[in-house]
TrEMBL record:
Signal peptide: none annotated. This is Nucleoside hydrolase. InterPro entries: Inosine/uridine_hydrolase_dom (IPR001910), IUNH (IPR023186), Ribo_hydro-like (IPR036452). GO terms for cellular component: cytosol. It comes from Paraburkholderia madseniana.
């Protein structure tokens, strides 16, 4: 399999960091750059974290700083109780070596990189979708030049779950619902890896301890960075482990056969008490729905081969692929 060229749009974030290590170590992924976005922490913090992660795990790969706030709303408060005060579970962040900071804003980095590799670049977006919406606004013609956009975000109710921040909304989509509705309406292939599959995929405490013991420096890092996040899951959901959000988007890129999907256009509610809710009209649904029917189909993940996903992550971290 030839390597997949990836731009990783991210708000690190503990699970973002775990997904970065996954991409850095998997031989089928060629990271072209990281683009930061506000979300789990402020843009200053997520950019600093992205530079730290890139410098440590993918030396030479640049970071471009992205949006500090949603398109039309105020920036949210950092989620310190989930991701720690520093966004990386309060682990020590060494000063050097940090990745170079690209001079361009993230959306320009995305445009230029897509245009340099037409038809080849996959965008893995695991934070609010502001940078992608800004790229479309600046250069709408890039959409058909992108190989695919794989998003961690949203929820479609397959387990009765529609959100993790409100009863109706998942964090990344609620982070910028206007941007998400733009991104899902653009003419590029979109796959959505939402809570329907990420909350079914759980890394247990034993699984994480095994990575620590068998995964060398990467496994040790995954363990260290996830201590605060694991405590949050235990406290908030009585879970003896962690949900696998952002690494599930990476898995979809590497092994889409692990996911059961449904096709159809997706809309995002942009106001009201259900703001941030994602609603798909399945392509098999015969009734007219004008607010959906003029838009392209997205691929929504409804189910996942959990052992397959966990084995892929483990073998990548432990170097046993
Ligand atoms: O809802 C899960 C998502 O929100 C993940 O991307 C996590 O990093 C947080 O941003
Ligand atoms: Ca994230």
């Amino acid at each position: 399999m030839s390597k997949q060229k990836v731009i990783y749009d991210t708000d690190p974030g503990v699970d973002d960091a775990m997904a970065l290590v996954f991409q850095a170590l998997h031989p089928d992924i060629e990271l072209l750059g990281l683009t930061s976005v506000f979300g789990n922490a402020t843009i200053e913090t997520t950019t600093r974290n992205a530079r730290f992660l890139a410098g440590r795990f993918v030396p030479g790969v640049p970071v471009a700083q992205g949006a500090a706030a949603p398109l039309k709303r105020a920036a949210p408060e950092p989620l310190a109780w989930i991701h720690g005060d520093n966004g990386l579970g309060n682990i020590a962040i060494e000063a050097a070596p940090e990745a170079a900071l690209d001079a361009r804003p993230a959306h320009r980095f995305i445009i230029d990189t897509v245009r340099a590799h037409p038809g080849e670049v996959t965008l893995i977006a695991v934070g609010p979708l502001t940078n992608l919406a800004l790229a479309l606004a600046d250069d709408p013609q890039i959409a058909p030049l992108v190989k695919q956009v794989v998003i961690m975000g949203g929820a479609f109710g397959t387990d009765g779950v529609l959100g993790n921040v409100t009863p109706a909304a998942e964090a990344n989509i609620l982070g910028d619902p206007d941007a998400a509705d733009i991104v899902f309406g653009a003419p590029w292939p979109v796959a959505i890896v939402g809570l329907d599959v990420t909350q079914r995929t759980i890394m247990s405490q034993d699984y994480l301890a095994s990575l620590r013991d068998r995964g060398g420096a990467a496994g040790r890092f995954v363990w260290d960075v996830s201590r605060h996040y694991e405590a949050f899951h235990e406290q908030s959901a009585q879970l003896k482990g962690i949900y696998v959000h952002d690494s599930s988007a990476v898995t979809y890129v590497l092994a889409p056969h692990l996911y059961t999907t449904r096709s159809g256009p997706v809309r995002v509610l942009t106001d009201g008490i259900a703001v941030g809710q994602t609603i798909q009209k399945p392509s098999t649904m015969p009734v007219p729905a004008p607010d959906w029917d003029s838009r392209p189909d997205s691929t929504v993940c409804l189910d996942v081969d959990v052992p397959g996903m966990l084995a892929l992550y483990e073998r990548t971290i432990c170097g046993t692929l």
